[in-house]
Amino acid sequence: MWHSLIRLAQHRVLIETLVVRELKARYRGTVLGFLWTFIHPLMLLGVYTFVFMFVFKPARGDNVDPYALYLFCGLLPWTWFASSLSEGANSLVANGNLIKKIIFPAEVLPVVAVLSNGVNFLLGLPIYLGFWLAFRPEGISVHILLLPIVLLIQVVLSLGLVMFLSALTVHYRDVRDLLANVLTLWFFGSPIIYPLDLIAHPTARAVLEFNPMTHIIEGYHATIFVGELIHWKRLGVTGILALLVLVAGYYFFDRLRDSFAEEV
Which long-range contacts (CB under 8 A, 24 or more apart) does 167-174 make? Predict the structure, then answer.
């Protein structure tokens, strides 16, 4: 397993090529083409702002104004996370023609799913920061320099989960349908439309504390929205958990590797 994991770094050129191919294929045949990378987050911002500010007004707590920016600060990385899991889980099945080639490294496909959606996130981030400067002229805190730490932890966690899910989906196609429902529950179980401090019930608070995405989303809120130091202890534990998930996910993937060509 460790040899395969190290070998993955040697396929960086292949990964880069497939990420570019995926991004081009995603917008091929559309009128606006690559501009959808910027339009999509703007549309998300508009829809969620309308729903949660004018239709459904959840309890918001303190320090969440302007609410549209607070909401989008968590929504943008969540979209990356959810899209990575959804597309990554189906990546081996959808690319069965590549899997059946003996020399093709199958683990590249889940990585491409995470990174291609990560590119969309990184391109949407400047749009968010532009709105932030428009609504908050005082500028962005220097703590945004800690953002790469949060990004890295999310990438590691996403890769581990996608490795596990993609291998499992090859044998059980039901995973794709189950995952859609799990992600919906996971969304509302993460502090995206509400601040973590708003949860007073001890059992509910404990459940949220065990959710790794809680601390990742809180990391985005701290570095971008609030402008304060990240919670090193919580995010550190989440980082260790993410590494364990990556190792376990890749181990599971490696154990089932020989069955992929036959099952896809």
Answer: 167/92, 167/252, 167/253, 167/256, 167/257, 167/260, 168/89, 168/252, 169/89, 169/90, 169/92, 169/93, 170/92, 170/93, 170/256, 170/259, 170/260, 170/263, 170/264, 171/256, 171/259, 171/263, 173/93
Rounded CA-CA distance 160/14 in Å is 20
Q: What are the boundaries of each domain within the chain?
A: 2-263
pLDDT tens readout for residues 170-205 = 888 888 889 989 998 999 888 888 887 777 778 878
- Predicted structure pTM score: 0.86
pLDDT tens, position by position, 89-135: 888 887 777 777 667 778 888 888 899 888 888 888 887 777 777 77
Measure the CA–CA gap between 116 and 222, rounded to whole angstroms.
25
Measured distance CA(109)–CA(95) in Å, rounded: 8
